[in-house]
Amino acid sequence: MEYVIEMLNIRKEFPGIVANDNITLQLKKGEIHALLGENGAGKSTLMNVLFGLYQPEQGEIKVKGKKVNITNPNIANDLGIGMVHQHFMLVDPFTVTENIVLGMEPKKGVTIDMKKAVKDVKEISDRYGLKVDPNAKIAEISVGMQQRVEILKTLYRGAEILIFDEPTAVLTPQEIKELTQIFKTLISEGKSIILITHKLKEIIEVCDRVTVIRKGVGIDTLDVEGTTPNELASLMVGREVLFRTEKKTAVPKEAVLEITKLNVKDARGVNAVKDLSITLRAGEIVGIAGVDGNGQSELIEAITGLRKISSGSIKLSGKELSSLKPRKITEAGIGHIPQDRHKHGLVLDFPIGENMVLQTYYQTPFSKMSMLNNKEINKKAKKLIAEFDVRTPSEYTEARALSGGNQQKAIIGREVDRDPDLLIAAQPTRGLDVGAIEFIHQRLIDQRDKGKAVLLLSFELDEIMNVSDRIAVIYEGNIIAIVDPKETTEQELGLLMAGSKRKEAGEDTHV
């Protein structure tokens, strides 16, 4: 059997935790091999060992049968190994092209040949259908576009073995289809892929084999043909997982959030939200469905005070919010699970305990006479860590040391614990495994059942369909339809998201 990668009996330890305990993973040439496990199971750690970011305490790595010592990512690149990270390694003020060629810039004499760089990037982008603007600034493009830049970076370096860490977590269904096609093209060119994913449907659709790890231990390697999502979920979590969220019918009450004729500009000064009107009531979850880049981010930033509005009104329980600062908006009764947990959700160099009180650190009992009360902060953190199953060695561990899913659970715990009247959940289950998704969905429904309003933004159509009581479709900055999830299909939603009108004319979206 020809293996292009063999990771044999790998052990990786961190202070207080064994992340990988004697794990073996073997990648065949020309296959897509899934690496499946819960948040914090050790998947990203194992791949960071392969990419040279971590050194294992035990075990060996072979590339094409030859034992290698990968002490840094440059050696991995030289061996033909490329990695697309879950959290993007991009320089915000740089352009797409500058990020892609960084460290491998084409030269013209002693200067960088940017003309050639742009041409090369455009060629690769067109070849794989990525549709990326080579001259756009990273800071001004959507999260989905940033993901494509990461993929382009790997392709530009000509890797033969590609590691994708949750590559579809922020992509729309259409973009996922396009990425699947990219995978097929890469495999047809003789490349091999390791895919870290939580999406069981994705594994069944695109992968040849799957290795399951649980709590740092290798459980099994299976052929995908012949397995089922239920079997994989049970192997991953160690128990049976329900794929449908059980919930009672919503009983909406008084209006909580009222948005009227809202206009908001994006970073380029172009109107991203246009004359948008919508009302959310206590006791309901409204899902926002739309292709990334249709004004969703700007809408949420406007509600939470992170972006100034051009015109219109945003009221919370009758109180105008549009002129208030973010802290005052938070205190008025809004919780915000942000779309980008690293940029807007956490201070990565702070302990996870301090991150748990980022919204409330200045209030009693966490602060006394302008001094932080660490005893109370850590007491609260311990409670939330236990309640929301945040897997961390302790409350003193830096936030950046946690897996992406555990970082997300920490943010959700912080925001839900404050019991806000309106909870805005933007991509709340991005990068989470099926067990954690089940847990988070139930928390959102619990908030609804307590009489709170929940605004859910997600690019996962099954999440929108499963959790929402009403679905508002956003297209080019406007709500073009509001549909009942029980009376629509993913196909109809997909058409609406692409700008198609419903058959019913003149539907009122201000409901």
List the main descriptive attributes of the protein structure presented here.
alpha/beta, six-stranded mixed beta sheet, 17 helices, 24 strands
Give the count of helical stretches: 17
Structural class: alpha/beta
Helix content: 25-40%
Biggest sheet overview: 6 strands, mixed
What is the rounded Rg?
23 Å
User: Which geometry do the CA atoms define?
Assistant: globular
Numbering strands along the chain, what is their spatial order in the largest sheet? 6-9-10-3-11-12
Provide mean pLDDT, rounded.
Answer: 89
Number of strands: 24
Low-confidence stretches: 503-511
Distance between the first and last residues' Cα: 61 Å
Strand residues, percent: 25-35%
Structure commentary:
There is one protein chain. The protein is an alpha/beta fold and 511 residues long. The protein contains 17 helices and 24 strands. It has a six-stranded mixed sheet, sandwiched between helices. A six-stranded mixed sheet has the order 18-21-22-15-23-24. Strand 13 and strand 14 form a beta hairpin. Helix 14 (404-417) packs parallel to helix 15 (434-449).
State the gist of this model.
The protein contains 17 helices and 24 strands. With 511 residues, it is of the alpha/beta class.
Topology:
Blueprint: E1 3-14, E2 17-28, E3 32-36, H1 43-50, E4 58-63, E5 66-68, H2 73-78, E6 81-84, H3 96-101, E7 107-108, E8 111-112, H4 114-127, H5 143-156, E9 161-165, H6 173-188, E10 192-196, H7 200-206, E11 209-214, E12 217-223, H8 229-237, E13 255-265, E14 271-281, E15 284-289, H9 296-303, E16 311-316, E17 319-320, H10 326-333, E18 334-337, H11 341-345, H12 352-355, E19 367-368, E20 371-372, H13 374-387, H14 404-417, E21 422-426, H15 434-449, E22 453-457, H16 461-467, E23 470-475, E24 478-483, H17 490-497
Parallel strand pairs: 3-10, 3-11, 6-9, 9-10, 15-22, 15-23, 18-21, 21-22
Antiparallel strand pairs: 1-2, 1-4, 4-5, 7-8, 11-12, 13-14, 13-16, 16-17, 19-20, 23-24
Helix pairs in contact: 14-15
